[in-house]
């Protein structure tokens, strides 16, 4: 192989490697292809947020987090100062709100800008956002405090689904309450004391509600209202178990009795009534004949008296009387 050809191959391989490295770096960093403006925002908690995190408006990436620093406020509180960029098509104004959201269960977070002004709102633009306009991040693991025995019976996929639904609803996702209630139902499906589980979830969600302002208050109210009928149902849980054990057997026995009485699916109701009335008439006729039957029945025999013969006594010859030596032996006619 000639040295010049080998050099060209090396240069080509290096060029391709550099291009791939740039593509991978851009994919990881996901830069914004737009003119941006820089803002500074103060948060009381930015756990999980890192440099290079996304800044989004209605789910669309419109900026990046450039730096996170620790600062001291005028009243002595420790705050997190976040420097971020935002597409110039949007501006942060007094009505805007910045919140740290979950991007994935691995702990990635992003900043969600709510109610931004569209266009170049120079007069109302705010470049230094105070804590009154920001919402800190929260630790979703607080939701599972006290549920270790329950979570031990669940698979990782079920726990992840429950966590995703809780995060989505608490952060104001538009999917609604149904996924969250389905997750709670699965969480309590194989637990005997469901009321305690729901009460624990409500208590943990109440702790999270202090840092979440979207729909958490509605969720807490709904879960509190659901806890009352659930507790009443748990008080009569044994009755449900009894009906489950004896209900089907009892129903089958009743169906057999009804079938024996002639009540079957698809019967001719007219014929059934005719047969019932005919049987009633026959029963009445049988009752009418009862006195005649009693007239032909002799009175019962007294204790110790010989039983009478139905066809009369047989007349014994005199020789038999001698042989029996006067004993009272009765022979009946056939």
From TrEMBL:
Domain Mammalian cell entry C-terminal stretches: 130-227
Domain of life: Bacteria
Pfam family for this entry, one: Mce4_CUP1
InterPro entries in the cross-refs: Mce/MlaD, Mce_C, MlaD_Phospholipid_Transporter
GO cellular component annotations of the record: extracellular region
All residue ranges annotated as the Mce/MlaD domain in the record: 36-114
BP terms from Gene Ontology: biological process involved in interaction with host
Signal peptide: none
Protein name stated in the entry: Uncharacterized protein
Organism: Mycobacterium [tuberculosis] TKK-01-0051
């Amino acid at each position: 192989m000639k040295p010049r050809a080998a050099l060209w191959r090396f240069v080509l391989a290096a060029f391709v490697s550099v291009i791939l490295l740039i593509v991978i770096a851009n994919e990881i960093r996901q830069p914004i292809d737009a003119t941006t403006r820089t803002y500074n925002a103060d948060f009381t908690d930015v756990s999980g947020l890192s440099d290079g995190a996304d800044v989004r408006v209605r789910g669309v990436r419109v900026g990046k987090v450039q730096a996170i620093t620790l600062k001291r406020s005028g009243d002595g509180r420790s705050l997190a100062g976040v420097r971020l960029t935002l597409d110039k098509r949007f501006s942060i104004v007094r009505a805007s709100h910045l919140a740290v959201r979950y991007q994935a269960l691995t702990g990635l977070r992003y900043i969600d800008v709510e109610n931004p002004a569209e266009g170049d709102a120079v007069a109302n633009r705010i470049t230094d956002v105070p804590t009154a306009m920001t919402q800190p991040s929260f630790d979703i693991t607080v939701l599972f405090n006290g549920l270790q025995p329950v979570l031990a019976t669940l698979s990782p996929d079920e726990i992840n689904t429950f966590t995703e639904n809780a995060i989505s609803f608490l952060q104001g996702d538009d999917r609604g309450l149904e996924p969250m209630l389905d997750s709670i139902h699965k969480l309590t499906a194989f637990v005997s004391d469901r009321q305690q589980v729901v009460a624990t979830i409500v208590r943990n969600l109440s702790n999270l509600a202090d840092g979440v302002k979207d729909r958490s208050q509605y969720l807490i109210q709904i879960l509190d209202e659901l806890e009352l009928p659930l507790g009443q149902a748990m008080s009569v849980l044994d009755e449900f178990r009894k009906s489950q054990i004896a209900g089907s057997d009892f129903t089958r026995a009743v169906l057999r009795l009804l079938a024996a009485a002639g009540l079957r699916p698809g019967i001719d109701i007219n014929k059934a009534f005719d047969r019932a009335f005919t049987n009633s008439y026959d029963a009445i006729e049988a009752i009418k004949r009862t006195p005649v039957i009693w007239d032909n029945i002799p009175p019962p025999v007294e204790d110790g008296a010989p039983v009478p013969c139905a066809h009369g006594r047989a007349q014994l010859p005199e020789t038999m009387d001698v042989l029996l030596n006067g004993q009272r032996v009765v022979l009946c006619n056939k």
